[in-house]
Design goal:
Number of strands: 11
Helix content: 40-55%
Radius of gyration: 19 Å
Distance between the termini: 44 Å
Strand content: 15-25%
Structural class: alpha/beta
Bound molecules: guanine
Strand order of the largest sheet: 1-11-8-7-5-6
Order of helices and strands: EHHEHEHEHHHEHEHEEEEHEH
Oligomer: single chain
CATH topology of the largest domain: Rossmann fold
Number of helices: 11
Mean pLDDT: 98
């Protein structure tokens, strides 16, 4: 069974749009998301375009501020300070990765925690690990929604996450732990990786390498969630971290790239923007 992230994202966005439609009357305005894109990395440009399109669908106001890759760290921090102080801005997202001369940690920490729609701010990360109310990072949140939508039991299961990034691997491991899975975080230095991944009832792959997961790495009947978005070196098309063709008959449930995790990430960003807006309106 293919878990259709595209379809689920459409239903999530439709529900959000229905809620947002009432906001102008209740609060006098709609949520406002500002996305900052530094440079012209094709992957980042495509993500940012997708975010703007989703915002339009949901009725969220969206501005994308494009800055040259040569922008200084100081200038970027000044821009963030300006947006932090702007009462009409509810969400600030700085598309990553940033050029090497800019310290990503400094930039993420500079975003007001109340406007951190990515859930990347150190305070949001701490709240996640302490199980306190927080903005959840979009991709991990979307993955849990995908599993729940397919009514996949998580509690008591062996989950293996390949990848230990701050954006996906570590937070999704934490969310799976909170759902009572037994979680292993595997990565590039893991010995006998196939042996580890073959234990997984739920395998989440976020390593960023084209067709990295092959059929021999998947336990029959496992649930396989592919977070990867890569360019196929043979066809130039988008492809995931999992060899879909080879694994689809072994897995019980599997996601596809594109049309799997990606659209859910964007839908969750819209949900986070609405949550930040409502929290600010309540203050
Ligand atoms: N780059 C890749 N994924 C993400 C994401 O979820 N948020 C931001 N800001 N940048 C990214």
């Amino acid at each position: 069974m293919v878990i259709n992230g595209k379809e689920l994202s459409v239903s999530l966005k439709t529900q959000l749009a229905e809620r947002v439609a009432g906001f102008a009357e209740t609060y006098g305005r709609v949520p406002n998301l500002v996305v900052i894109l530094v440079g012209e990395d094709p992957g980042s440009v495509s993500y940012v375009t997708g975010k703007a399109k989703a915002a339009a669908e949901v009725g969220i106001r969206n501005t994308t501020l494009r800055r040259d890759a040569s922008i200084s760290e100081e200038e970027l921090l000044a821009l963030i300070a300006e947006l932090n102080a702007d009462d009409d801005v509810d969400g600030i997202l700085v598309q990553l990765p940033l050029p090497r001369h800019i310290d990503e940690n400094k930039v993420i920490s500079a975003i007001s925690v109340d406007k951190d729609v990515d859930g990347f701010h150190p305070l949001n990360v701490a709240r996640l690990w302490l199980k306190q109310p927080c903005v959840l990072p979009c991709t991990p949140k979307g993955i849990i929604k995908l599993l729940k939508s397919a009514e996949i039991e998580i509690s008591g299961k062996e989950a293996v996450v390949i990848g230990r990034s701050n954006i996906v691997g570590l937070p999704v491991a934490k969310l799976l732990t909170d759902e009572n899975a037994t979680v292993t975080v595997a990565h590039s230095r893991t010995r006998n990786l196939a042996e580890v991944t073959r234990r997984a009832d739920i395998l989440v792959v976020a390593i960023g390498r084209e067709r990295f997961v092959t059929a021999d790495m998947v336990k029959p009947g496992a649930v396989v969630i592919d977070v990867g978005v890569n360019r196929d070196s043979r066809t130039g098309k988008l492809c995931g971290d999992v060899d879909f063709e080879a694994c689809q008959d072994i897995a019980s449930y599997i996601t596809k790239t594109p049309g799997g995790v990606g659209p859910m990430t964007i839908a969750c960003l819209m949900e986070n923007t609405v949550e930040c807006f409502l929290k600010r309106m309540d203050k």
